[in-house]
Amino acid sequence: MRGPGWQLCKQLITRRVHSSSYALKEVELTSVRYPDLKRGPFGRLTDSDVTHFRRLLGAERVITEDLDGYNTDWLRSVRGASQLVLRPRSTEEVSAVLRHCHERRLAVCPQGGNTGLVGGSVPVFDEVVLSTSLMNKIIDLDTNSGALVCEAGCVLETADAYLAERGFMMPLDLGAKGSCQIGGNVSTNAGGLRLVRYGGLHGTVLGLEAVLANGDVLDCMSTMKKDNTGYDLKHLLIGSEGTLGVVTKVAISCPRRPACVNLVMLAVRSFEDVLSTYQFAQSQLGEILSSIEFMDGASQECVVNNLNMSHPLPGHPFYMVVETSGSRDTHDEEKLSLFMEEAMQRELVTDGVLATDVGQIKSLWQFRERIAEALLGDGYCFKYDISLPLNAFYEVLENLLYSDGNIHLNMTTRDFDAAVLSKIEPSLYEWTAQHGGSISAEHGLGLKKRNFIGYSKSPSAVALMQQLKTMLDPHGILNPHKVLPDN
Amino acid sequence: MRGPGWQLCKQLITRRVHSSSYALKEVELTSVRYPDLKRGPFGRLTDSDVTHFRRLLGAERVITEDLDGYNTDWLRSVRGASQLVLRPRSTEEVSAVLRHCHERRLAVCPQGGNTGLVGGSVPVFDEVVLSTSLMNKIIDLDTNSGALVCEAGCVLETADAYLAERGFMMPLDLGAKGSCQIGGNVSTNAGGLRLVRYGGLHGTVLGLEAVLANGDVLDCMSTMKKDNTGYDLKHLLIGSEGTLGVVTKVAISCPRRPACVNLVMLAVRSFEDVLSTYQFAQSQLGEILSSIEFMDGASQECVVNNLNMSHPLPGHPFYMVVETSGSRDTHDEEKLSLFMEEAMQRELVTDGVLATDVGQIKSLWQFRERIAEALLGDGYCFKYDISLPLNAFYEVLENLLYSDGNIHLNMTTRDFDAAVLSKIEPSLYEWTAQHGGSISAEHGLGLKKRNFIGYSKSPSAVALMQQLKTMLDPHGILNPHKVLPDN
């Protein structure tokens, strides 16, 4: 555990205008939906470019048809118009591709599992999609230290399964684990469900390799926990969302898989009780706490209705999921049952269900992990992911829950609605900034939030980011219209 | 705990040419000891500069006499020839000072507690010393999250005492805690004794403020654990050893002080047994392990002789210190005694002593923390701090311990001896690089190791570091001759 962390930032309120499931239709083009966006002064793809790429990669890894899956994001909220997808298999190929794009001023959208939630992982206009999916080899695991070295395209769940067989685990876990790739996780600084215990990627990534915009390979590989030799460049790439370079390899510190894991789902009466239970869990469970999340009742209704699942504790206003991981089961179970008992006695918690075997634990986690998927069943989902100091949560409690609250973190409508959007933004961001929070706790900025960066970062910091971008990508070809604000 | 980390990198072998204590004499000037070093094309300090600084700070915070303590490092291994020390009290003052130095091309050496071990914290020639000692206010502690905000000049031990009264602790602990400052810790990415549990500063620093070479204030303050809005610039400053900016404020995530702490010192027969005990402790103690260190017998003899201390387990070839921190004392004690028992049964450990109260724990820690101080009593100390993959440790065991080993991590001589130095460097670094290790695990590069950066970092990475330096400090005034290699 890296301190008394908190991550009460997700699924705070769910507002659903429609509750019935909704059939998929084609997503509006980003260029149409956001008419203010202007394509940059990039080169236009020619037949000779395509021929060049075919020579580099072979024809079967240069894709020019059926690109909808590459152009559309998972949320079905944005759609680019790329005509070309490239699927390199090695760092050298990525380097050769980018060298050509740099010379020809062709814009590029690096893409991993395409599970991002802010429109960062798909093209905006006609950027060439550079997919890392075929770079999915596990290169090495040091079973003494737990240092895993793998290519960027490894799927998180696949890597975790590989580690499980060897007594280790990935230090991060996300709902999207079945599709998301390590390279994308690192590029977006994905947080996930176990940050409270294992810390974020700035702490767990030991080294990486990336290809810069001009095709140069930046080698920052290391498997050492401790290496204090010069500026730690890997951090520039972590969370830069593919705008400074394409991550091609990652070395990451993997903890030993705990001997025993337990999970409780709790029903809670009020948001105030959620916060108290959170604090109480921190003090009682301390070093064995591996995850603590909460969800509101509307999110659970949505999961039940849209995914046809049966809820173990139906009809409560709030829920919490508390997971422990430790080295001795008797100790952990004793701590956890003591915590449950006392939380009940103090009337913080009204009901609860405990899971101790792997199957039960997995099925309870679904009620948290599949919220995003369930919300999509409603149609369009406006998605917000803010973090706030705990005391600000208390302060605004009334405003959030008991007034007719104009602040919603997940709001679904049948279709995208610009009028609804303008009611949420930028007022939600202003309010978050006033309370010292972050407008994007873990989703990143991507396309959708780039112009709101000023609510969470100072002008001096944004100016330096622009300088870095210009230095590393002078033609601005890497993932244009993402992260940094217009102008 | 952030995974099965290891930090077997310290005090591996101690070779002492002389064992008697040694009286201090004046340290040779760095410019004399290292005749190849050339002063850069910097401005020369004039009376009008001094007058300007007096106007900015007031006469009593502009020091021009008795500068020996500012010019000489703690190891008494390098000595600069600065004529001027400035002691600003605020970020604004640091900014005004640097703006003037930038205009006048005056080189600057930022200085915290001056406890660095690689000659990074003192001037090489006549750099102006910019001391952060008077910027020592604690600004805020969020008792919900443990986020501490303080000025760069706060002494680590003072900050920890402040936190202790409020149920928290600093996430790092060093032997130098009584003098070292947070700003210096962050600038050098100090590791310390509890990295295995709480992770490094790239994980625990939440935000910072720094003044760049031209006087611009870079505001990267945040107290959020999760904030994914743009490039995470604070990491550029962490570990840049004052060459990219002067850190003026820090926000850091502080864990709750554990309810119970226990410590054992173990006597171990061989280095192989040290490694086995290390692995065994990881598996048995898991999440309650808060520190694990080892020392060789020579280091302990040196502590006993030079500091007049009485050793609890005299005469063993190796020692380990294993600390646990947890939330329930009965659980922790049970785990620890089980670990001790089994380690004895397996004959990994030949003797041991347990400390459970604060006083005992503190006094046992001295045998680890005061090694550096004790070594100084011998005269000159050649200090190396490498990290290696565990399997490399095994491989080179014979070479390290049972041959007449030309590889020494701490070697003391009566005086500095260039012939001895040339026997160690660069062969130690070559060997470390061959085994995939780092030539500086936590001490940094400073003056002494800057030209060896290539053994741990790729040419592409070093080239990008140079680009960053040029971008952020075009005249190269910040801590010249440190971190980056000559040319």
Describe this structure in words.
- The structure is a homodimer of 487-residue chains.
- With 487 residues, chain A is α+β, with helices and mostly antiparallel strands.
- Chain A folds into three domains: 209 residues, 2-Layer Sandwich (Alpha-Beta Plaits), CATH 3.30.70.2190; 102 residues, Uridine Diphospho-n-acetylenolpyruvylglucosamine Reductase, domain 2 (2-Layer Sandwich); 116 residues, Uridine Diphospho-n-acetylenolpyruvylglucosamine Reductase, domain 3, CATH 3.30.465.
- Chain A is 33% helix and 17% strand.
- The first copy, chain A, is built from 19 helices and 16 strands.
- In chain A, the strands form four sheets. A five-stranded antiparallel sheet of chain A has the order 6-7-10-8-9.
- In chain A, helix 10 packs antiparallel against helix 12.
- Chain A is globular, with a radius of gyration of 23 Å.
- Chain A starts with 13 loop residues before the first strand and ends in a 15-residue tail after the last helix.
- The relative contact order of chain A is 0.15.
- At the A-B interface, helix 8, strand 9, helix 10, helix 12 and helix 19 of A face helix 8, strand 9, helix 10, helix 12 and helix 19 of B.
- Chains A, B: It holds the Pfam family FAD-oxidase_C.
- Chains A, B: GO terms for molecular function: (R)-2-hydroxyglutarate dehydrogenase activity; FAD binding.
- Chains A, B: Its cofactor is FAD.
